[in-house]
Amino acid sequence: MRTLLSYLLLLVLKLFGAERLDRHDALPLGSSLSDAIALYGDPFEVCKSDSLPESTEYTFDVSPFHGCVAWEWRGQIHCIVYFPEKSFPAPDLKFMCDNYGDGKNWTVATEGYLYFREDKLVRLWCSAMPPIGVATMEYWSAKEAYSSSIANGESAG
Predict the structure, then answer these.
(1) How many angstroms from the chain centroid is the CA of residue 12?
(2) How far, in Å, CA of 115 to CA of 48, rounded?
(3) Cβ distance 133 to 118 under 8 Å?
(4) Cα(122)–Cα(102) distance, rounded to whole angstroms?
(5) I need a labelling partner for 86 at 20 to 30 A (CA). Which of 19, 21, 117, 156 fits?
(6) Mean pLDDT, each 10-residue run in order, the chain (157 residues)
(7) Collapsing DSSP states into helix, strand and coil, what is residue 76?
């Protein structure tokens, strides 16, 4: 049960825009798990990824208004999904493009849903729902290859 003080704290945070994703630091792709912990604190959940068993999924609380799931693969963070409590579509998309664009432009594959960095090394996806994510194409390709192998009845090992 939340106390009056915790409700007041949340109200103050909202008044200063803390519920907006762009008010927080982004975890860079290619970061180490140590970098993620330094930025967001210890993960509250750790598990093997169902979509690519070679990777590990870490879930963090970024703020009282944001969660973050980061997938570590081959010793680096290759995929990051933010879960804002409330979506601010235009500022959220700008935050992601600015932080993961590496100074490059983005190609729109599907307006409002799927974008590729012009060097084709990173993809970004979002929707009308709050989650918004980014992944290296290397990771995404490995994940897709694993999914295809399972769909074709190949061994998961």
Answers:
(1) 26
(2) 27
(3) no
(4) 10
(5) 117
(6) 56 55 91 97 96 96 90 98 86 93 96 95 87 96 93 69
(7) strand
